Amino acid sequence: MTFEYLQDPGHGPRWHGVLPGRPEAFFLKRGDGEHAKLFGDLFTVLLSGDETEGQFGIITCDCPAGDIIPTHSHAATHETFYIVDGKVRVFVESPDGQRSSRLLEPGDFGFVPAGLAHAYRVEAPTRMLGVLSGGFERFFQRMGTPTDTADPGQPPFIPELDRIMAAGQQHGTRFFPDFTWPDA
Amino acid sequence: MTFEYLQDPGHGPRWHGVLPGRPEAFFLKRGDGEHAKLFGDLFTVLLSGDETEGQFGIITCDCPAGDIIPTHSHAATHETFYIVDGKVRVFVESPDGQRSSRLLEPGDFGFVPAGLAHAYRVEAPTRMLGVLSGGFERFFQRMGTPTDTADPGQPPFIPELDRIMAAGQQHGTRFFPDFTWPDA
Description:
Chain A is mainly β. Chain A has two helices and eleven strands, in the order βββββββββαβαβ. In chain A, the strands form two sheets. In chain A, strands 2, 3, 4, 6, 7, 8, 9 and 10 form an eight-stranded antiparallel sheet that branches. Chain A has a two-stranded antiparallel ribbon with strand order 5-11. The longest helix of chain A is centred in the C-terminal third of the chain and has 10 residues. Strand 1 of chain A pairs antiparallel with strand 8 of chain B, so a sheet runs across the interface.
């Protein structure tokens, strides 16, 4: 349970170098990748924009059930949800202002394009896979903290507000704290 | 079991319009999407480059165990393998000519960048998810044939050689029929 590279970035994390950082073939065993803890969730980067000429990145998220995450939008990031295990309700506002949601279960898929306000709520312990416009996969590492372990028992990482805002700004993400959803 | 839109393209398939065709939010239930049959495999497009400004597309492939598929390379397409269920051995040649393979099992991940010769062999009934540079997801529809059903019992679709070559040419794909792999 070590977050010591926050104090000493030269020290780790051990996953540094697991992804090649350029368009080169590689393989990962289940559970491998670049781990970061953010609140109670474990985000794992399987592929980054560095390998795809900026086209896309891929993450998994292993998350316990929890509260709805704050509503936000991404200026330039398309985002997908593919449920491997579990249940996630995705909330999205359409360009005409309609707010709706869909409960996603294993095998279900959701797409939220750049610019739309959205949120989600994990309703059962979940593994989901997300594909993101290249570069956005680092958002979760910047808002959260790198970790070497995929152990679900590790403590949550609660970022300070300025860390949240800095990560948001770096990745073109706006938060809407007063947003409400009819079925949340 | 209807392929009649091959004769009458104005007729179907019924999945036409399931994807919005522009960057707009949408959701799919497991099993929904644009289905195409190619040999014994069912390819389903969950997302296309039309929704992502050309960045990426997403497919699932439901496939029985089978022979190694012919070795090929894509001029401009990055390709990923994420195993949801099953077992797939991915073969890839590195730029220095080394040929190797990796057996992927559920949760495992593989990346093959543009330009590298590669192949794969499904070693158990498999569902895998693939992310591809935007536009390449149509390759499987062009080489295979659209179908309305996800029924695994539908007959295989065996394309003629000229259909294979035309789809390959349209999507920057070269085939290497005489290629051999040390562990195939």
